[in-house]
Design goal:
- This protein is an alpha/beta fold.
- The chain has helices at about 50-70, 75-90, 90-100, 105-125, 160-175, 190-200, 215-225, 240-250, 275-285, 305-320, 335-350, 390, 405-415, 430-440, 475-480; strands at about 15, 15-20, 20-25, 30-35, 40-45, 135-140, 140-150, 150-155, 180-185, 210, 230-235, 255-260, 265, 295-300, 355-360, 380, 400-405, 420, 420-425, 445, 460-465, 465, 480-485.
- The strands form 6 sheets. It has a 7-stranded mixed β-sheet, sandwiched between helices. Strands 10-9-8-11-12-22 form a 6-stranded mixed β-sheet, sandwiched between helices.
């Protein structure tokens, strides 16, 4: 792996797996083409790994576990802080790589994705220095608890926030003493591959972090069904999560599953409309709407419905879909041609269901990037809550706006989906904010804001949005076993 990643090369790169501290080609020599979403061109090839590659990685991780888990917390903390420093020093390089691989604007990767990855390492570097164990005394007997690392963690991360979410898993897993085998999405492998050099420079011993690229049915399946991998953390689609539960059940694995979302954005008549519209534009279309926490179902109280729609659609029309390298770009490219077809399918479905496309609804054509996967920010009105467009996760720059009359009505609308990841509530009434938040069946509720995260608090979903919680001490609890002595 070169010390400096060359984003300008014309010849496609062949990436490698990272096993036991070494760059290792896939055992069968098979590769998957990796496309630049902005152009539709192949610019690298990713290992199409199989169970043989996963086995090599698990063996390496198991071999590294005794030494790493026995290392003092202070030493592991130093390694994680060093990782953060090394990554931060290459912020622009990683931001450009993330943008080219995923399609998002470079400005977004530079200000959100890569800084958050640095924060993940720094946070858990500090977390492990400030944890507590409990002790009790009863009739002359002393009981105390001790948290122990589990072994090899299987970490499977998605394509929408590639390094952001991969490091959200790696950082706590190795901070508490586990080793890991990671399978990043085959659609966005580049920054994970670039991180491998930093693991070595940070002094992470060989085998502590292993990265195996490939598709879910091969590499992913081998990891979740491996008998020597007792723990799986997965972020991705609900159907895949269901499959992981079934595949891992015979091995009694610990699971943390962060799955799909169809999040309500609830706007009451007393909301600060200016702040609400501005933030709702971001919560609808940030990262091309390819964030599991985006508020894709907007519910507006009928007294301010027309005013909100007017202001929201005006701002949506002003958004710039463009070259991700351009600092003025608001929306970059979608992840793939298949995903763009999925977005088009749902827009057409909305029309069939009686919806009105008030903004967008079509591909965006960019001069010089005709092969790119660009789509206009799309706003749909006129659909009832039972329509598939409102019920099903689209995961793109598409939102629906629906009016409501009463608090009870909108809570019913919000909860009437299979998902329960997050919600946003806009109101100046503190009593209402607390009351509605308590009634919403989801893991996170934002009030008069969106995507403000404290890494100490639990994160996860309800219903088909997953199970388990990670964040702060909750991550420590997930990646360890508690023993009583």
């Amino acid at each position: 792996i070169p010390a400096t990643h060359d984003m300008t090369q014309a010849t496609p790169q062949y990436l490698t797996n990272f096993i036991d501290g070494k760059n290792v080609p896939p055992t069968r020599g098979d590769y998957i083409p990796n496309y630049n979403p902005s152009t539709g061109d192949v610019y690298s090839y990713v290992p199409d790994s199989t169970e043989e590659d996963v086995e090599l990685a698990v063996v390496a991780a198991r071999k590294a576990f005794p030494k790493w888990s026995g290392m003092p917390n202070q030493e592991r903390s130093k390694c994680l802080n060093k990782l953060a420093d090394l990554l931060e020093a290459k912020l622009q390089e990683f931001a450009e790589a993330e943008s080219k691989d995923q399609g998002k604007p470079v400005s977004l990767a530079r200000t959100v994705d890569i800084p958050r990855a640095c924060s993940n390492f720094r946070f858990f570097a500090g977390q492990i220095l400030h944890t507590e164990n409990t002790a009790t005394e009863t009739e002359g007997l002393i009981n105390y608890t001790h948290r122990m690392p589990i072994g090899v963690a299987g970490l499977i991360s998605p394509w929408n926030l590639p390094l952001y979410l991969l490091t959200w898993k790696i950082a706590p897993a190795i901070a508490v003493g586990n080793t890991c085998v990671c399978k990043p999405s085959e659609l966005t492998p580049m920054t994970a591959w670039m991180m491998c050099q930093l693991f070595r420079e940070a002094g992470i011993p060989d085998g502590v972090v292993n990265i195996v690229f490939g598709v879910g049915p091969k590499a992913g399946q081998a990891l979740v069904s491996h008998p020597r991998v007792p723990l799986i953390s997965f972020t991705g689609g609900t159907k895949t999560g269901e499959h992981i539960i079934k595949s891992s059940a015979p091995f009694y694995k610990k699971l943390s599953l962060e799955l799909g979302g169809k999040n309500p954005n609830i706007i009451f008549q007393d909301a600060n409309l200016e702040d609400c519209v501005t933030t709702s534009i971001r919560s609808s279309f940030a990262n091309q709407g390819e964030i599991c926490l985006c508020g894709s179902r907007i519910y507006v109280q009928e007294e301010i419905y027309d005013s909100f729609v007017e202001q929201f659609t005006a701002k949506a029309k002003a958004l710039i879909v463009g070259d991700p390298k351009d600092e003025k770009t608001n929306l970059g490219a979608l992840i793939s041609a298949d995903h763009m077809k999925k977005i088009e399918y749902y827009v057409n479905l909305a029309k069939e269901e009686g919806g009105k496309i008030v903004v967008g609804g079509e591909r965006a054509r960019l001069a010089g990037m005709e092969g790119g996967y660009f789509f206009q920010p799309t706003v749909i009105t006129g659909l009832n809550n039972s329509c598939r467009t409102v019920q099903e996760e689209i995961f793109g720059p598409v939102v629906t706006i629906t009016s409501f009359k009463t608090e009870d009505e909108v809570v019913e609308y919000a909860n009437d989906v299979q998902y329960g990841l997050s919600a946003t509530v806009w109101t100046e009434n503190a009593r209402r904010a607390h009351r509605v938040s308590s009634r919403l069946a989801c893991g996170t509720v934002w009030v008069n804001c969106w995507m403000l995260r404290d890494l100490r608090v639990p994160f996860g979903g309800m219903k088909a949005s997953g199970g388990g919680r990670e964040g702060g001490i909750h991550s420590v609890e997930f990646y360890t076993e508690l023993k009583t002595v």
